Amino acid sequence: MALVTIGNSEFDRDTAVTRRTPGVYDAHLSAGWTIIRAVNGGYLLALMGRALGDALPHPDPLSVTAHYLTASVPGPAVIRTEVVRTGRAMSTGTASLVQFADDGSEVERLRVLATYGDLGALPDDVRTTAKPPAIPPYELCLGPDSAPGERPAIPGSTAIADRLNIRLDPATAGWAVGAPSGKGEMRGWFGLADGRDPDPLSLLLTVDALPPTAFEMGLSGWVPTVELTTHIRHRPAPGPLRVAITTRNLAGGFLEEDAEVWDAEDRLVAQSRQLARAVQAG
Amino acid sequence: MALVTIGNSEFDRDTAVTRRTPGVYDAHLSAGWTIIRAVNGGYLLALMGRALGDALPHPDPLSVTAHYLTASVPGPAVIRTEVVRTGRAMSTGTASLVQFADDGSEVERLRVLATYGDLGALPDDVRTTAKPPAIPPYELCLGPDSAPGERPAIPGSTAIADRLNIRLDPATAGWAVGAPSGKGEMRGWFGLADGRDPDPLSLLLTVDALPPTAFEMGLSGWVPTVELTTHIRHRPAPGPLRVAITTRNLAGGFLEEDAEVWDAEDRLVAQSRQLARAVQAG
Question: Domain Acyl-CoA thioesterase-like C-terminal spans what residues (chains A, B) (predicted)?
Answer without folding.
Answer: 153-276
